[in-house]
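Q: Got a minute? One more chain.
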Amino acid sequence: MNKMRLWLVWIGLSALGASAQQVMYANLKELAEGRGDTVTTLLVEKRTRNQLLLMGGADYRIEAVNNRGMNRYLRKRCYAVRIDTALYVNCRKMRYKNFRFGNWYASAMRVGDRVYYCAQPVGQAASSSTVPDDAARLAGEVGDAIAASGLVNERVCYELDLQTGRSSFLSRGRMMELLEDYPVLQEAFAKETGESAEVMVRYLRRLQKMLLIGKNE
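A: Always. Here it is, folded:
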């Protein structure tokens, strides 16, 4: 009986693993075209506040099970990873003006022909309403700056252009532009305050849904 139970558990876990689609995108072009290498051994770990404070970098660590070579590729060369419907971009590959976001991966979502990801506020974003008045302004390596400023819990959104690979800060003004064809959403957003990722992601999801509805009509 015990052997049978173990067998059934193993079958269930195998089926669960097989159903989880894991795709690695080597570069911007592959991400834009939605084609990459399918794998089955990736694990996603949300990094702790202490890890962010001590080492900086982005929110998620993605690694392969017992594969040092693939782990090296994931850290340094891989552009993005999709696990089921969840998308993550490698912050080593992201640039905002002259700022870097450090190591590891940030959560992202695709809306139309652009990708939006959540990361620490840097540059223009660091002087937005999401940052306390007495916070240190960020400069240089983002990991050290974040640790010094105590902004580990702050996140804002950045817009990745899939044609150029350039990132720009998703400001209130830019969000209003994105919602121009959806006056009800735009009116609701106009009542929001701040430019935090929590607010922006909420409206990006609504916009994504509207675009999908329009595409399927």
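A: Residues 197-216 form the longest helix (20 residues).
Q: Perfect, thanks.
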